[in-house]
Amino acid sequence: MPNKLLNDFNKSKELLFAHVGFEQDGGNYPIEDGFDYYYWQVNGQVLLYAESKEELITGQYHYQTICQDSYFPQSVFRGKYLSMITVNSIDERTLTLFFLDNAKEIKK
């Protein structure tokens, strides 16, 4: 049973990566589930996100720095239904793969 769970987990990661066109480089990066958040990007440098549009628009949001100097060809990977944005972790020592629902993207 534990082996099947791990196999299912890895297969799910592969499906997410394939959806957004991300080719993993062998690194094992943390994944952040941001499907419940509304979000927008500021000049491609900062990801702002909140639980509602109103919170986002009125400045009651969380933010993370979009990683510009990663090993990947881009910082934002878009699929039909979801996007993955590479962000710096809070301590800026590791890269986090932040998945978001495209339907909740706010465009200025």
How would you sum up this structure, described in words?
This protein is α+β, with helices and mostly antiparallel strands and 108 residues long. It has one domain. The chain is built from 2 helices and 7 strands. The protein has helices at 2-20, 53-57; strands at 31-33, 38-42, 46-50, 62-65, 76-78, 82-88, 95-101. The strands form 2 sheets. A 4-stranded mixed sheet has the order 1-7-6-5, covered by helices on one side. The protein has a 3-stranded antiparallel sheet with strand order 2-3-4. β5 (76-78) and β6 form a beta hairpin. It is globular, with a radius of gyration of 14 Å. The relative contact order is 0.23.
Q: Give me the side-by-side strand order of the main sheet.
A: 1-7-6-5
The largest sheet, given as strand count, sense and whether it forms a barrel, is: 4 strands, mixed
Poorly predicted runs: none
Strand and helix order: HEEEHEEEE
| First and last CA, distance | 47 Å
Number of β-strand runs: 7
Computed over alpha carbons, the radius of gyration is 14 Å
Structural class: alpha+beta
Provide the number of structural domains.
1
Hey, roughly how much beta strand do the residues contain? 25-35%
Shape: globular
Q: Please, how many helices? A: 2
Question: Percentage of helical residues?
Answer: 10-25%
Mean pLDDT: 89
